Amino acid sequence: MDIEYDVKVCAGHLVSFGPGVNVSEKKDVLNSLLFIELNTNDAAGAQPWSKRAEGAFTATQWVMRSSDASNLTPAGADFSIGQLVEQYLGENLNPRGVAQLSDVLSRFNSLPEDHPAHRLFYRYAVRESAVDKSGNASTIVRFQISIVGRGPSLMTLFVELDIARRMTSQLFVERIQVKDCIGRIELSYNERVLQTAAYGGTRAKVLAYLAKVKAPTPVSLPAVHKKPGEAGAGKSGSTLKGK
What secondary structure does DSSP assign to 135-158, as a single string? Predict the structure, then answer.
C-alpha cells in the first residue's frame, strides 16, 4: 500500500510531510520555513544566502545535525534539474526517502502552469534578468526541497544555478545545456531537528512577522496516482561530477 504524503509549496520551498507529523507540527514547520524563506529570498548568491539562512534557522529553533555542500558540474552535454536533485539526494536518503522525493517531483511536474502552487513556486524560485540589447536573458533558479519526518526532523536540499537563457514552465524536466550554465551549480544538504519547546517561545514573533509582510499561504500539491510499474519523473542515466 502506497504511503500518502502531504506536500506543500512554501514560497520557493517544496516541503513533503511523511507519516507521524501531526497537524500542529506541520503548522509550526511551514510557518518557520516560510519565515526563513522570506528572510533570505533577496540574498545575492549562494554564500550570502547560506549565511542569512543559518541565522534564520537558528532564530526559529532549528538545530543542525549534519550538513554537506558541493559545487557540481554535470557529466555530459545536458541535464535536468529534477535529475540533479534525485541523484544528489539519492546519495543521502534511504529508499523510502528517495520514493518520497520522487513523489514531490512527480506532483510538481504534473501541475498545469496556471495552478496556484506552480505560480507560487515560480514567483520565488525563478528569477529572470532584464533582456539586453541582443535579446539575451539569464535565469537564476534557487529553491529548497525538504522531507519532514518525526521530531519534526528536516532533510533539506538547497539548489542554486544561473542559466544563460530563459527557462520554460517545465522547471524540473527541461533539458539544460551544460554550456548554458554560468559558473558552478551550488548544492547543500542539511539535516535539522526543530526544538519544539523552544519554538513555542518564538511562535508568536514568527506569526507576527508573517502577518506584517503579508506572507503567501502555502499551497498543497495534489497527489499523482501512477499506474503500476510507471517510472518516476525526472530520472536519467547521466551522472554528476562533484568538484
Answer: S---EEEEEEEEEEETTTEEEEEE
Cell numbers found for residue 126: 525563478
Cα(230)–Cα(198) distance, rounded to whole angstroms? 44
Instruction: State the chain's mean pLDDT as an integer.
Output: 86
**How many Cβ atoms are within 10 Å of 10's Cβ, its own excluded?**
25
Q: Domains in the chain, please, with CATH? A: 6-227 (3.40.198)
73: part of which helix (H) or strand (E)? strand 62-74
Other beta carbons less than 10 A from residue 115's beta carbon? 16
- Phi/psi of residue 187, nearest 5 degrees: -135, 145
Q: 78-79 and 176-177 as β-strands: parallel, antiparallel, unpaired?
A: antiparallel
Percent helix / strand / coil, the chain, rounded to 5 = 35, 30, 35
Q: How do residues 35-89 score in pLDDT, each as one tens digit?
A: 999 999 887 777 888 889 999 999 999 999 998 887 777 777 899 999 888 888 8
